[in-house]
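pls read this protein:
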Amino acid sequence: RARDGHHPAPMCLLSVWRGVRLLSTKQGPGCVVSGGGVDPHCVFARFARGDSRPASIVLETDTVLAFHDVAPVAPTHILLIPKTLPVASVHEDVATRHPEVLGDLLVAAGEVARKLGLCEDGFRLVINQGPQGQQTVPYLHLHLLAGRQMQWPPG
């Protein structure tokens, strides 16, 4: 639930769940420290803690921060990061030990889509994982892309 008390529209949330692909590959460099944890100086870790803020926040809940990507690949390109559990990747026990993190990201994505009026025309959700998945910041995050016709297959 967003801070304004609204829930995502049911059809919009349904499309959120259909759009997610979870990929697991080896972890890349960057925000990861030895032992697999997240470097506290990682830009997304700093955003999650509130030490610094992205320029354009779209939604903030107790568990998720959503903001405009500084290098968009679509007319609408929003990044969603977990605030409560800084993890570098999907395969770090998130799906099995902390499924609420993924659930919170998906619910927030539905809320962002509703808030920005994207539900009718549609949108794509992407989690890039590891080097071959083009993960550029090794901190679990979700991309919400909209505003143009997406292609299939992606990549």
